[in-house]
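Researcher: Next sequence.
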Amino acid sequence: MIRNSFHRFAMAASAGLLAGCTTLPLQTWMDPQFKDRAIGKTAVLALADNIALCGQYENLFVKSLTEHGITAVSLRATMKITDQLTKEQLAAELQAKGYNSIIVTKVLSKTSHDRGQGASGVSVSADGDYWTYYSYSSTPAQTTYPVSITESDLEAILFDVKSGKIAWSGRMSVCDSQSNLSNMEIVIRSVVKDLEKKNLL
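Model: Next structure:
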């Protein structure tokens, strides 16, 4: 992982990747000096404990950018990412390979919310709603278990490789009521849509 050294280059990165839930809209910021400037050749990096999810996310992001006419690559697929890699080394590597931008996605925080008690036959939410399943004997199951959801606050940051400055950033929340794949697709779609809206693609 690159978390320690790259954290300074990313200025706000974090680890873990995507669970799912009610998605909050993407909130974005952009440096005016990068207005209407195409991102050019772009590297994509995900910071998380689960390396497999990182690779899947990066590949999905690359696919989406490519469909919008952007030359993009997964950083993990082209470089060895280690804790020893410094900001300066990474910047030099990216420039040497002709990259104009890098998009880093990370999890800022995770919060679990208790939704009450559930059972194999009856599920109870915090506000008292019930969804009931009956067996052939019409007897609800009695085994209970805690019901909770985890909300993940995510941030995607677009860096200009040459200057090292943040050109664009966006934050949104997802929850684990959806699959990892669904959440990744939601985040990527939201980010790409906003980049396109701001004439960065």
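Model: The chain has five helices and eight strands. Strands lie at 24-30, 42-46, 72-74, 101-119, 122-124, 130-132, 144-160, 166-175.
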